[in-house]
Amino acid sequence: MHHHGYLWVGAKERFDQEALRRPPHPEPPPAGCKPELLQRYREIASEFPVVDLPPLETAYWLIKPRSLVRGTWDEPKEAATWVRACVAEYAPRFASEWERGLIDLSALVNSIAERISSGGDVSFGFYLERPSYLSVAVVTCSPNHAQPELACPVG
What is the value of pTM for the model shown? Predict the structure, then answer.
């Protein structure tokens, strides 16, 4: 078992494009449906696996391009330390002062390490100034407990 880290920072408007953040339904629209519905389904089916937006279900990071993996670790503590560094780097840009003071980075590391050592995934999101959004995730791989059928993106 190992862990992959993912980081996304971008405009909140782009992050809010939820259709591109969820996998397409396993079955295409029925024959005879509106052409617009079929076209939208095809767009989502082709874009979801390659778009860099954070998926709504954390495990689906594993089907995204290998180039989006920001780090791979065998030890949960190392992955948790990476998340801590990411959060610490962006904390001064958090949209609210309350959130800036809220994060206990030591407790965060311990919590993340515990969660992923048992095979879980973690995902954090913060609104940043301008408005932007920060997404940081660590996904357990080989196998992923939530989606064991998903292959490792690193090979």
Answer: 0.91
